Amino acid sequence: MADYRPEMPLIVQSDHSVLLEVDNPNFAPARDDLIGFAELVKSPEHIHTYRITPLSLWNAAAAGWTATRVEASLGRWSKFPLPGEVLSTVRERMARFGRLRLLLVDGHLVLEADDPLLLTEIARLRSVQSHVAERVSPNRLRLQPLARGFVKQALLKAGHPVDDRAGYREGEHLAVTMRQATPDGEAFALRAYQDEALHAFLHRDAGSGVVVLPCGAGKTLVGLAALCALQTQTLILCSSNTSVRQWMDEALKRTGLDPTQIGQYTGQAKEIAPVTVATYQMLTAAHKKGSDEFPHMRIFEARRWGLIIYDEVHLLPAPVFRVTAEIQATRRLGLTATLVREDGREDDVFALIGPKRFDLPWRVLESQGWIATANCHELRLDLPAELRPAYALADGSARYRLAAENPLKDALAEQLVRAHEGERVLVIGHYLGQLERLAERIKAPLLTGKTPQRERDRLFDAFRAGTEPVLIVSRVANFAVDLPDASVAVEVSGLFGSRQEEAQRLGRILRPKRDGRPATFYALVTRESVEEEFALKRQLFLTEQGYRYNIRRAVEVPEGGAVAGRP
Q1: Domain topology for 371-566
Q2: From the CB of residue 105, how many other CB atoms can be counted at a distance below 10 Å?
């Protein structure tokens, strides 16, 4: 066949799917290219399937990719000539980014288009009409003053991404700089990739966007560097009280801020300071049960913020999206390890927080030594014979829970903990009954959402110090918990097929170890059950980043942690 190149790893198909051969020598560089402009759909052993979508192309365009670069990448790795339909779609979709622009003209918010007919089409959209004040020229619509976020959101859903160039208000000035050394004398500076991420966010009009970096790669430093670069009062939104404390500690350690300039807005204290750190949970606490009124949202108006940082932006609650649509004149920085949202609202992150500005594959940082090498294992166990009738008769979530709480996991989890004696081990699960059994069996402390914050802090400190080398933890440890010496994670159960949860759990053990040892991640899965199917979905994002799971049917775990088993 003419132009057939069997040595290449890609097959690009006319339905915009892309097949990638795992066992091809060019697999890794082709994968690193693909994650810049395509989404991983499934990843069995030998062939991974990606899909080129409008949103993946618009995120690529916002991050600096061009249609020519996308075509060149596909052409470089493809076995066959590229389908014309795909090339046409790439050019047409990427050309849409920038055709519609939001501008501030003489104090008015204006939507501008290159093509008057396109603007006519836009003006007739029902979702846009109520936000239009008047058509001021063939190429411009004047919008209502507060329409900025709502129009961007509506137009993205209609297939028209908007390039927001309307500028941003200047918040109250805050004189602050990054330190060159911590108060205890430790010298530090932004790493090259952190500096690149900062400049990608500040590019052109220093406005809005998302920085994607692995857990342990220093996203907090990127946020603090943005605060210092913009010299403005800043609101930081986090996923937990533990995360709030970590942000406050890092701000005092890495910047010239003093304690009086940093406040926390949580259930424990409601302080408004030039830099205020709050939790999403606090903001979305309703005044009355079942109410859709959120009185703590007033924090957005408490000061003239010049920057809002959304930590773990993939967890952003829906009510905060609504407020974010109204405050588009404030600069916004999203930080995350993965843009995957289990609720499918990635397009709202693009429209309301901003497009992806920077993304670096996890394996690239691993190769540079910034995050630990990780070995991932999936250990499959049988379901006990006495539970099989109940499993056969169960439906939906009940069936999944039976498989996830498989009691045979208890002994295997204990074996793994004993095999890694001398290391810091996290045993992570979703179901509290299962975790309580494990805590009793392993004789290790249990940390859940019910654990008081003071006790959480004590346990985390003891873990860091090595006096409590094993912690049994629920989902509260998924996010923003700084445990640099954790090197082993044993996942006994998870939230169905949550890709973001799997990524966050691996992230708990990815900080480089002082002795250089690799991290080890175990996922315990019930064989021939729905849990196997969900495990494949959970692993999808990490597979995209280059991690492979060593899948074995568990038999025993001998001394040293080597997994005994059979394929």
Answers
A1: Rossmann fold (3.40.50)
A2: 12
